[in-house]
Amino acid sequence: MKDIQKFHQLALALLKNIGLNIDALAADQEVISLDVDNSFSVHIGLLEQGQYFFLAELPQTTLNHLSREQLVELLRVNHINGDQWQPTISLTLDDRIACWLRLPLDTSDLPVLTSALDSVVENAETLLRRFTSAEVLQTTSTSMEQPFLGLRG
Fold it and tell me: Fewer CB within a 10 Å sphere, N or C end of the chain?
């Protein structure tokens, strides 16, 4: 129970820091889902053993339109780089392209959390531009000023 309370404190502080004022979460809520510019979803969730995650999922149609060369390029995105944060690129169980970061629950510095979340969102936006069909791209905005338009519990 202690981890979920800490997670709620961090998540609410982070949401407030990015301009979403949420009064409270359900006592047992372990995942918060956000719609980013109606283009993809970002989830903030609690893991076991004192960890939580940021996960961005691209639209389901993404994978269906990739050539072999694009799949290889997608895998190369995971190559180690010198960035402060490097979200892992993966496929979800329903074949959506996703990027995620796992963080220890004791990471509570808001600028650090915001930077980590921005990294996931920016990576998802880059993946969306590089690996989606034209009809999906038409709804994509790259503005980071107000990326979070909706909250799902």
Answer: N
Q: How far is CA 20 from the centre of its chain?
A: 16
Q: What is the pTM of this model?
A: 0.80
Q: Which residues contact 51 (CB under 8 A, 6 or more apart)?
A: 102, 103, 104, 105
Provide the residue count of the chain.
153
DSSP 87: P
> Domains in the chain and their CATH numbers?
2-152 (3.30.1460.10)
Find, among 55, 56, 53, 57, the residue nearest to 103 by Cα: 53
- Please count the CA atoms within 13 angstroms of the CA of 39 that sit on its side-chain side: 26
